[in-house]
Amino acid sequence: MPEIKLAQLTGAEALEVKNYAAAMLGVCRKMNDIIGTQIFQILSLNARVIYFPLGKDSVWGFTRIKGSMGDGQNHKPFVVINSSIPIDCQVFAAAHELYHIWKDDKVNLVPADVIDEITNDRNELKANRFAAEFLVEEELLLKELRIYGITSENVSFKDILILSELFCVPYRTMVKRLFEIGFITKTDRNRFLNKNEQEVLIARKRYSLSIPQSDERIVIDNLTELAVDAYENKRITFEKLEYLLNISKLKPIDVGIEKPSNIPFPSDDVLDKIMEE
Questions:
Q1: Tally of CA atoms within 13 A in the half-sphere of 120 that contains its CB
Q2: How far is CA 253 from CA 176, 256, 258, in A?
Q3: What are 117-148's pLDDT values in tens digits?
Q4: Which is nearest to 30 in space by CA: 182, 165, 167?
Q5: Where does residue 244 fall: left (phi above 0), alpha (psi -120 to 50 degrees), or beta otherwise?
Q6: pLDDT of 252-262, one tens digit each?
Q7: Residue 71 has pLDDT above 50, yes or no
Q8: Could you give the dihedral angle defined by the CA atoms of residues 167, 170, 176 and 182, in that order, rounded to the nearest 10 degrees?
């Protein structure tokens, strides 16, 4: 079996990130809650988020910390999440970006191989570890291991797939998380990490587990909500509404708005003639 070499944080660095993730879970009041796709709402409270299909082999996401200029008290950074990647990868990318927003305060780009931790950039390694700690909190993970009767001696490929589905994180993230908390050995970690994408896909089908899909969504922060509100308050025309919604590949009917009738209302003179008849 080939050796898996991963860049790692020092013990002190890992402890620092763990404590910071725990503190932020407390701030978000999520200490006893599996985060999963809730991460998108947490991210939206801290940034203006754009979801766009950049391609399955493209970057997972990136952040512009400075955000929009002249935004006053509402100043927020911009984050782009690649919606061409599976939803569990989007979850991980969102948590990774949160670290940079909360702690690092630097422009960041999340490469497609971020999950493999082949970088020696300490900030990127810390962001990865933060994402793992935030999304798969140790006590919650240990609780689920007890519920499913999974022990260090009997942990299986299927078990890890179930856990990754439960926490909505990539399979490789869950393998490394089990190693990080000392639940599996380095030998087991390498054995499980050597499973390729095709093997993971086949196993998910075999065990009737969900297969994370990309949604290819286009979401420009709250543009859709603002456009609909503007139309309903008669600030923009129906044609302008169509244009704005089309940016997100939506039509007015998708948000419950039908095209208004183009039949002009008759004038008073016309109405008088009709009455006379």
A1: 1
A2: 45, 5, 5
A3: 666 778 889 999 999 999 999 999 999 999 99
A4: 167
A5: alpha
A6: 999 999 998 77
A7: no
A8: 10
CB-CB contact of 24 with 134 (8 Å): yes
The one-letter code for the residue type at 71 is: D
Spatial distance between the Cα atoms of 45 and 75, rounded to a whole number of angstroms? 12
As given in the structure block, the two tokens for residue 267 are 């004038």
